[in-house]
Structures are given as structure tokens and as C-alpha cells.
Design a protein that fits this description.
Blueprint: E1 6-9, E2 20-23, H1 24-46, H2 53-59, H3 82-95, H4 99-121, H5 127-139, H6 141-146, H7 153-170, H8 179-193, H9 197-214, H10 218-247, H11 250-255, H12 268-286, H13 291-307, H14 314-330, H15 345-360, H16 367-391, H17 402-411, E3 417-420, H18 425-434, E4 445-447, H19 456-468, E5 475-480, H20 485-498, E6 499-506, E7 511-517
Parallel strand pairs: 3-4, 3-5
Antiparallel strand pairs: 1-2, 5-7, 6-7
Amino acid sequence: MKKLESIKFSLFGNMQTPAVSVPLGPTALLIGIVGVLMRIRFYYSFGATSLTRDEAGLALSFVDTGFFELLKPLRWDQAAPIGFLLAEKAVMDVFGSSELSFRLFSLVTSILIIPLFYLLVRDVLSPVGVLVGLAIITLSEPLIYWGTLFKQYSFDVLIALVLLNLGRWALRKSPVNGRYVVLGVIGAAAVWLSFPSVFVIGGVGFTLIASDLLEGRRREAVAWVASMSVCSVSFGLAYLLSFRYYAKNDNLSTWWTYAFAPMPPRSMGDVKWYIDNFFLLFPSELGLRDAGLCGALLLFGTYSLWRDPARRAAVPLFLGPIILTLIASGLRKYPFGDRTMLFSNPLLATLVAAGVAAVWEVRQPTMKVFVAIIVGTMLLYPLYLDAKYMIDPQARIFMDVKPTLVYVADHRKDGNVLYVHWDAETLYDYYVKKRDFRNLKDWQSVISRHPGNVSRRDKTAAYAKDVALLGSSRRVWVLLGIAGQQEEDVMLELLDRRGRRLDEFHGIGSAAYLYEFGPEGAGGVSHESIGRE
């Protein structure tokens, strides 16, 4: 495909309206700079808040541990690839274990995603498609969000882009010496760095093998099979050493049940699962709310790429990893949905942008206006959301347990006991037991047990047994996390029956309540200090 260095168009498609020329390189650079600045802004506004529940569970594996201990299965139902853990541990050793340090690696990876995406699509899409795809990536709230958290999902996207760029490089007509070795070695390393990288490698390998077979290059196809075999052996070793423990984790499997595809589909409900999850990819992974519009553009973009012999190989390259993930989901080996599919962000963005570019190229005067409306409609919500969070970064914070712990520490008295709801246990273990936040480590505490997916009545009975462990304690602080309103209602209903509520504090994604138990405190709620923020 002939590459253009600028976009030239007359908006209304007539001779009286002068053509507008938009240089591709400087415009792409400007969009990229905006994306970098937004990510840095959100990192500094969000990065200093407390770790979330899942982050705290992962952090407990890093504090006071060595590199070799990270090879063991993680606790707290956390799962992360070994390469990611080792990279994060190296960052911790250099920059310390503050919240900003924990999240620094994700910030760097989220920034590197932007130029790698540009390198990927500049040879696949027209200039219009490149700029639209880059705008989607830059404004994507899921990418920005996971780029500020101590989790591996932003790194998954980066590894996917590295592999896809290698795939594009290997697909060039003129054979590149050593490309089989390069892709084999990097692919073999990638499976240790990112769980979904195996699907990206599979999509790349299938594309390379099929492309050579269709063009009669059997020797090259065999070489690619050997290269992919090296990746397969490496993945097998990683699975035996680490991944198999996560695949057999019942709690993780139960949690992700909704993201496992019914395969084969046996009912209309099963078919509906596929339809729903296809359209959910756009808001969940791209941050674009108009799923119907995005779905139509993706299909049209796929069709337009397939029609062009020079770009046809891009279709299996971008769709292959998604299809392989769907198959793994049907086998209950990998969830198809939510953050585990974030690696598909650049794949989806490319195909959607290809659809926009294909509409732009239709030789109708009104199509330019139509494309402007499409792009505006598509990007309006992420633009609004990013602008909102730029103005008010606090609106983006959904959990910060430190202010709640500060309030409890400042208002506790001798003899008080701390009752920790199961949903706040990892936060308690990290900040109180591991970091001794506000000298709370030696405070007598009781941890509740997860009652499981049971009825409200059974939950109340389970929590009543935990409350009984408090014994003769007169005053108890209750620390709650973000398990949900129903969990909080059940807990408070039980405690209000057993004691008198003296104080409470509502933080972001956490809360604390002070109760007094005993004959003189039983029955009823005190209003003397309720509602303090």
C-alpha cells in the first residue's frame, strides 16, 4: 500500500471549498503528546492513593521477599506472569515500595503503547485510519486506568504490540534474514511476561504460516512452524512451573465464570452470550460507548482490509488472537472479558479505524461530513470522561482506605477492638500488619470469613459467629471494604441488633463504624456522632 504523508480533503467535496492538508507525522505526534500528558497527570493524581484490594494482595508478595520467592504461586487469589513480577520487583528495589513506585511500571508501559501502536498501523492503515486509531488509543479510558494501577494488564497490551509489530516486520515480501530466530526467541520470552501473549503469538504464527503456504513458499512455512514450536515449548515450561496453579485455582475459576464462553452453544442464551460479549468489547476494552457503531465499523474495516491483497494478512493477524482467546475461554482456561481482554485494545482499535478509513475513501461528497460525525460520535464520551478527570482527578478514585484508617487510628481508645470485614482483609494485611500504618499493627483484631455465595439469612448467621468471637469486647471498630451494598447492609443490620452505633466514617471504597456492645449498649443506634465524613 502506498503510504501518504498527509490527509488532503475538501470537507464538502466541491471545487469551491479549498482542500485542507493535515500532515500525518506532526498530527500523530501531537495526539501522542496529549496521551502522554494525560497518563502522567492521572498517575500523579491517582498514584499516591492507597492500593486497591487486588493491588494490596499482589503487593503482599513483594514486600520483604526475594526474586526466587516470586516464582511461587501468589496468594490472595492473585495471578500474574513471572516476567511481570520480576520486572516489578526490580522497580521496587530501585524506587522503594510507595504507591507511586508500585504503579510506575504500569505508567511506563502505558506510555510506550502509543508509539508502538503508531509503528504498527502506519503501514496497515491510510493516514485517516492512523489518526483515528491513535486517537482511540490515546483517549481510551481502560488503557489510562490500568496504566495507573499495580497490575499487569497494561503490560499485556505492550507485549501484544511488540509481537504484532514483529509479525508485520516478518510479513514483508522481501525475506529478512534471521526473522525466524528473532520471532522465535522473542515469542518464547513473551509467554513468561504476559498470559495472553500466547494468543497473540498464535495469531502471528498462523498468519505467517498461512501466508507462505498460500504463496507456495513451503520451506518458509516449515521454518515458521519450527519457530512457533520454540514458543510452544517455552509456554509449556511456563505452564508447568507457574501457570497451572492459577488454572486450577477454584476461586479464580468461580470468579471468572461469567467470562467463560459456552462452547459449543446449545441454546439461544448461549448464542446471546457471544453477541453480548462481542459488543461489550468496545466499552470494556476501548472505552467507546457506541458499541453498535463500533461493531459495524469493525466489520466494515475487516472487509475492506480483506479486499486489499496487500493488506489481507492483517485480518488474521488482528482477529486471530481474539478468536484463540475465545476458544481458550470455551475450554475454561482464560476469561474472555473485562481486564483480561485489555490486550485486544490495539487489535480492536485498528479494525475500527480501518472501518472509518474505508468510509472516508468512498467517493461521495457527503462521506467526509459523515465520517466527521462518526468520529465525533465515537470519541465524544472518552473526550468527556478524560476532560472530567483532568479537571477533577478525585472523581476517578474509587478506593482509598488510608483516610479511613487515619480516622480510626485518631479516634481509637484503649480496649477498642478492630473487626475487619473479609473484603478489607488484604488492605488490612498490607497497611496494618505489613506496613504498620499509623501504629495499628498491635491492635487486637478479628478477621471475618467469606460466607460464600449464600442467602442473606446464611450470611447473617455466618457473620454472627464472627461477631461472637469478639467475646466481652465493649467497643469495636468495624472496617468495611467494597464488597457491595448488600454485604454492608447485612453486616450493619446484625451489628445494630447486637450493639449501639457510636461513630462512623465513610471513605472512598471503605468505611468504619464504632459499636458498643453489652447490656447497656444493646438495641438501637446512637445518633450522637453519625454522619461524620
